[in-house]
Amino acid sequence: MKIATWNVNSLRVRLPHVLDWLAAQEPDVLALQETKLEDAAFPFAELAAAGYRAVHNGQKTYNGVAILARSEAEDVGRDIPDFADAQKRVIAATVAGVRVVCVYVPNGQSVDSDKYGYKLHWLAALAAWLQEELARHPDLVLLGDFNIAPDDRDVHDPAAWKDQVLCTDAERAAYRKLLALGLADAFRLFDQPEKSYSWWDYRMMGFRRNAGLRIDHILLSTPLAGRCQACGIDRAPRKLERPSDHAPVMAEIA
DNA sequence: ATGGCTTGAGTGTCAAGA
Fold it and tell me: What's the predicted TM-score (pTM) here?
């Protein structure tokens, strides 16, 4: 089973890239973030023609998450239960017996912003819910745009980013709390090239300088981690015309 | 120097991203 995540930064703009990537990589599951679409505008027909069913939790202009799958998505859940949030950042579904939880974690903007407090509260609510979800579903994958670089090796310039949003101790502690629920970072189960990132700023030729961060993650429950054969970041779509600023991350599970 | 691009809104130029 190939399972992937990609922040597409507008599915309206990126649909051709997504269709090309699905055809080239043939993942069984692709989790999308930042669709920036209302459900009524979601391209269900185009994806169905490519062989993918989709479930979406969308809103106008901002956020929006989806799960694309070659087989049926069952037991679909939207948002974090019992957490009041107008922003559409979570969708969950069971695909081929695997519980898939797709998240678009708040960015946080800056440490002195209200959005940073919202991010930390959001992450605490996610962890509390995930604990229950893991108890119900031993085969679980939590994947998406976490907006957290877990470690300095996930940051192109750790000195510049020290104590900045995406890299603060509190965010990294929240990330480790998710791992402590019994999840493993699929990417770090394997030897990886140094300076591996999943996001590069559009400005200042970030991609050409490889001035990036690794903030998109696939976290696997213990049974799935034991069956994981590979995990990598595909930089190819970031090189296309009008790319997303994120690259897809994909894991393969036996 | 708080910028730099990109997107969506909407037709001015701003908010938001990370």
Answer: 0.98
